[in-house]
Amino acid sequence: MLFSEELKQNATPILSAIEDHPFVQGIATGTLPKEALTFYVGQDFNYLNAFIKVYAAAVEKCRDRSDMAIFNEQINFILNSEIHPHHVFCNVAGVPYESLQHAVQAPMTYLYNEHMYNAARTGDLIDIVAAMLPCPWTYFEIANKLIAEGKNNDANVFKDWIDFYGSIADDTDANLSDRFFALIDREAANYNAARLAVIERRFMRSCELEWDFWEQAYRQQDWQFTPAKNLRQDQVIQH
Ligand SMILES: Cc1ncc(C[n+]2csc(CCO)c2C)c(N)n1
Question: What is the CATH superfamily name and number for domain 3-229?
Fold first, then answer.
């Protein structure tokens, strides 16, 4: 079995839990509390800033320009296109996007960002891609399931969000997760079983952190004694 197939197979229960999560179900039905949407966007803006930096770290580990081009392209995609789904949530919530761009990391955002930075700091290219892959993979799976179920109908306020992450919109890179899985299979040939187990755990943890990220926003889970939302903008030191 290809290593990528093993990863997908082992992560299937987590993917199902994500698809069943009340936040994702709220996207399906077009009903989500304003507080969940704004918490998500604030944290996701922070998360995507970290994601861009981890892509930059991946460029540093590339051995050829065709790999570099993938990460370069994705940095552009996040900077210029990934703002659309955030706008969809902000419009539904009735909140200006700019007001959500200075959020300090809530606990799960901190954990997810640090998990990716750890792969960049202590791993090879394959470790970084394993930690990053659940992001495009789970969103692509979520959106295509919702499309298959006809949830991207005109009555759904989240139609554009679903189309963006699914295979419908023109400006999305629908095959990104396939390209990353192929890159992982190519690189996996250079590693022994013990090392592949570490790589697999990075992937599985990021899948789990994807579930945590939805849960955190749905329940607006903050630090208990040092809440992120009480910090002033000029006190924000985390990236
Ligand atoms: C927590 C979280 N996970 C996944 C995505 C979706 N996403 C973010 S970047 C990217 C691919 C860009 O290379 C995709 C699909 C998100 N927005 N937030």
Answer: Heme oxygenase-like (1.20.910.10)
